[in-house]
Amino acid sequence: MRERLTKLLAEIKEKLETIEDQNSLNVLRSYALGRKSEITNLMAALKDLPPEEKPLMGKLINEAKQKLEAYFETKKANLQAKVLQEKLAKEAVDVTLPGVEFSSGSNHILKTVIEDFENFFIGQGYSIKEGPDVELDYYNFEMLNIAKDHPARAMHDTFYVDAKRLLRSHTSPVQARTMLESAGKPIKIICPGKTYRRDEDDQYHSHQFMQIEGLVIDEDITMADLKGTLLSFIKYYFGEDKEIRLRPSYFPFTEPSVEVDIFDGEKYVEILGAGMVHPNVLKMGGYDPDKVQGFAFGIGLERIAMLKYEIDDIRHFYTNDVRFLNQFKGGKR
Ligand code: PHE
Known about the structure:
CATH class of the largest domain: Alpha Beta
Largest sheet: 7 strands, mixed
Distance between the termini: 92 Å
Structural class: alpha+beta
CATH architecture of the largest domain: 2-Layer Sandwich
Radius of gyration: 44 Å
CATH superfamily of the largest domain: Bira Bifunctional Protein, Domain 2
Oligomer: single chain
Strand order of the largest sheet: 1-4-5-9-8-7-6
Order of helices and strands: HHHHHEEHEHEEHEEEHEHH
Number of strands: 9
Number of domains: 2
Bound molecules: phenylalanine
């Protein structure tokens, strides 16, 4: 019996050496310790031994059994460690490899300029208005004191959709629309948006461009309010040391009218048209020119952006060259 036990232990030990996975280990375990195993047979044979041998043999069989159990536990732990080791090796991440770069979009530079305007003017109590790009002749011209055969229409040669509709040549029609909507109440708005003119495209002209219109109507509004508003915006946007110059000009919808220039370090550059809202325009919009006054301005957005960011060609805004656009990622250059 002792020999059988020694042989059994040796046999199982040897077989365990060749086991590589959990399944084969389970199979070997039931062979070594299961109901039909040698150990079970030996236990059963105990009862045929002479009584004086029984205790010792019983002890030996139990010890052998415990040894076997221990062998299997150790092997099991080794196998698990091995599996873990392999898994870790397979999933290892080389943190020194270069990452994958995601390309992300960003605001167009003109959008950023509009937001800067909005931040300033909202802070001054203005609200933002919008109007349609395809506009009625009625709002684009007539409501702005530019009758059918008015020579000022020549300054605004644009794209007609049909006899009554056109691509708006300025953002001023939003003035007329807002006046009608406001039914005689005070107005304080800015309206950014696209505008169109039948210009030949060159470094400074584009058939599509953007403006920001401003309109304030209330009692006791004067030219000084207009000048103060424009000057404080220019200082906010370009710096405290900036100065503006007002030149007399002509627009059918303002009287008096001015053109405003800003000094770019070398020369004055025209950036906007403005003036006191013409009494005819106030009347058509439902306001009494004897009771209220207003000022209005229309700023060329690209001009402002070109000055601020030293951009030398207006066509850059519309030709979508990513080398240009990427310079403004994150909003500021
Ligand atoms: N609408 C004018 C233009 O585009 C600018 C302007 C707006 C002038 C408001 C006066 C008042 O040229």
